[in-house]
Design goal:
Elements: H1 7-22, H2 24-33, E1 55-59, E2 62-65, E3 70-73, H3 88-99, H4 109-121, E4 127-131, H5 134-149, E5 153-157, E6 180-184, H6 189-199, E7 203-208, E8 211-212, E9 218-219, H7 222-235, E10 238-242, H8 253-258, E11 264-268, E12 278-282, H9 284-287, H10 308-320, H11 324-347, E13 353-357, E14 360-364, H12 381-393, E15 396-397, E16 403-405, H13 412-429
Parallel strand pairs: 3-15, 5-6, 5-7, 7-10, 10-11
Antiparallel strand pairs: 1-2, 2-3, 4-12, 8-9, 11-12, 13-14, 14-16
Helix pairs in contact: 1-12, 3-10, 4-10, 6-7, 11-13, 12-13
């Protein structure tokens, strides 16, 4: 027998039905896409039931869907859209690059300029190379670590995401590349220490996000991250910081905030100005192995590694827009917004909250401390879904999983609107949302 629907079930059912009614064009576009794409989808993170929205355009920090609804874009392209939509500086750089030819089959001066600026911000990248995504950057960093150490094992963390073939939610994925992974618990030094004690001479790298991104915007505790540096040194492994998402947290990423120097760093997202981009770099003795003049050079090809559009957009954004002061202001705004969101839940007595740091945050169906994905077990995903659909009706676009990543055009007025929208949705559904003890 089917269980009797709870009030929360009923509220969520109605919210989904309202969504269906409001968005027939998005539903129709998905049906068309299904003729050539499995599930009408070519990017898994964007899909959710009953169907995802289809966006038609964006400007500043707003987007418009196929049914004509306008939203504040609180998702910011999963952190890649830091500059917002159609930033004039980025547009001008792309147009200038287009006029000179897109694919030049050669070196250009653009790649060196962008590399120099990234190196200035991230001094631990003594030498660096470009790729087309954060996924590629992490794959290449691991390959470099294994080649340099002559070892084969990699410590990763439960709930971590380092790309579509390096995902460890629930312990791993059948799509993962076949490295010999050792799974540790995030923010649990003892779990790492035990793996090092058992496998130390075989460990090539410890790969870690300074903030667990897709795993819930869970900050790595400073003592935990510093302990990883010590453990890597003790066993001769390389510490690899995946700053694909966290590089935006300061002028030099989270490593600068913590005064930590990893052996290798990976990044991407906004550093390409909103275009396809990835970068990996680090210690000179490791990265020099990619010098093609060496007889023992490590090969790293890629048709679009130095494509002129990413090089131009990335350099223009970093040098003309994203000053240290701008980065600091964006992250301060995020800290304030997260505190205001959490105050809304507290005022309504709802056991939900956002975790995160700076301009990154994720909604959880608990207000309790969250140090690792294990702390989220047993929380009610229906509550998050209800707020997701409710916020869409209020004109707020975020990730179904609860991720918010602020972009530069999100100002004080937009933050006020976001807080008011959350307050309205929580007030409307307070009776069915999890209550605080």
């Amino acid at each position: 027998m089917n269980a009797t629907p709870t009030p929360l079930d009923q509220a969520l059912f109605q919210a989904v039905e309202n969504y269906r009614t409001r968005n027939p064009r998005s539903a129709a576009l998905l049906a068309e896409a299904e003729q050539s794409l499995p599930g009408g989808n070519t990017r898994s993170v964007l899909f959710h039931g009953p169907f995802p929205l289809s966006m038609e355009r964006g400007e500043g920090c707003h987007v418009w869907d196929a049914d004509g609804h306008a939203y504040i874009d609180a998702l910011g392209e999963f952190t890649a859209g830091l500059y917002g939509h159609s930033h004039p500086v980025i547009l001008a750089a792309i147009q200038e690059a287009l006029a000179g030819g897109i694919n030049l089959s050669s070196h250009t001066a653009r790649e060196a300029r962008l590399a120099q600026e990234i190196r200035r911000r991230f001094p631990s990248m003594e030498l660096l190379r470009f790729a087309n995504s954060g996924t590629e950057a992490n794959l290449l960093a691991l390959a470099a670590a294994k080649a340099h150490t002559g070892r084969g094992k990699v410590i990763v963390f439960d709930g971590a995401y380092h790309g579509g073939v390096l995902t460890f939610a629930g312990g791993g994925s059948p799509m993962n590349v076949p490295h010999a992974f050792l799974l540790a618990r995030y923010n649990d030094v003892d779990s790492v220490r035990a793996l090092v004690a058992e496998h130390g001479p075989d460990i090539a790298a410890i790969l870690v996000e300074p903030v667990l991104g897709a795993g819930g915007c869970i900050p790595g505790e400073p003592d935990f991250l510093r302990a990883l540096r010590t453990l890597a040194d003790e066993c001769g492994a390389m510490l690899v910081f995946d700053e694909v998402m966290t590089s935006r947290l300061s002028f030099g990423g989270r490593q600068a905030l913590l005064s930590l120097r990893p052996d290798l760093t990976t990044a991407g997202k906004y550093l390409g100005g909103g275009m396809s981009f990835g970068v990996f770099g680090g210690r000179r003795d490791v990265m020099e192995r990619f010098d093609p003049r060496r007889p023992d050079a490590l090969a790293h090809a890629g048709t679009f590694n130095n494509n002129v559009l990413s090089m131009a957009a990335g350099h223009a954004g970093l040098c003309q827009v994203l000053t240290a002061e701008v980065v600091q202001a964006l992250n301060a705004r995020g800290e304030q917004l997260r505190a205001r969101f959490n105050a809304v839940f507290a005022q309504h007595g709802v056991d939900m909250g956002f975790t995160g740091i700076g301009s990154l945050m994720t909604l959880h169906a608990t207000a309790g401390p969250v140090r690792s994905p294990a702390d989220l077990q047993g929380t009610d995903g229906r509550a998050k879904d209800l707020l997701f659909f409710g916020l869409l009706e209020e004109g707020v676009f975020m990730a179904r999983r609860g991720l918010i990543a602020l972009s530069l055009p999100v100002g004080d007025a937009e933050c006020d609107t976001l807080v008011a929208a959350l307050d309205a949705v929580v007030a409307r559904h307070r009776a069915v949302l999890p209550a605080r003890a």
